[in-house]
Write a structure and sequence with these properties.
Layout: E1 4-8, H1 14-31, H2 39-56, E2 61-68, E3 71-82, E4 93-102, H3 111-125, E5 131-133, H4 140-145
Parallel strand pairs: 4-5
Antiparallel strand pairs: 1-2, 2-3, 3-4
Helix pairs in contact: 1-2
Amino acid sequence: MNEITYYKADQNNIQTLIDLRIEFLTEVQHECFFGEASAQSIKMLKRDLADYLLKSLNNTCIFYLAKDGNEDVGVGGIVIREHPGSFKNPSGKFGYIMNMYTVPSFRKRGICTNILNLLIDEAKESGIVFFQLHASKQGEPIYRNNGFEIHNEPTYDKHINIS
């Protein structure tokens, strides 16, 4: 087994980012009993992810990858968002941490924590002091151990079907 190395993703890693995001979403969808995604929806998502990453990677979103030898075994991203400021966050800039995923056979080795710290450190260099995320049950202890607190304000979602 090799030592895990970490690196910031760039345009050359777009296909890897897409593949790992599909793995992540498939696992989450399965855990939440949403059923399997159709081949058509996966194809459309891959196309849209490629478009998004081509324009946003290292502009408004940053991803780090973990590698064991030649195999990418973990990923995490942060999307930089900006809203009107508040008393706690006058600039209104915040980092939304997302797509924290480790290949199942590499879990419990600190990969997620290391990627999380790389993302936060990089965002702090840009003046970002506020971070948000949605956590899976598996991820909750990692985030709590790294200073994240549950936000008790209710959040509502609405999804409009455009088919």
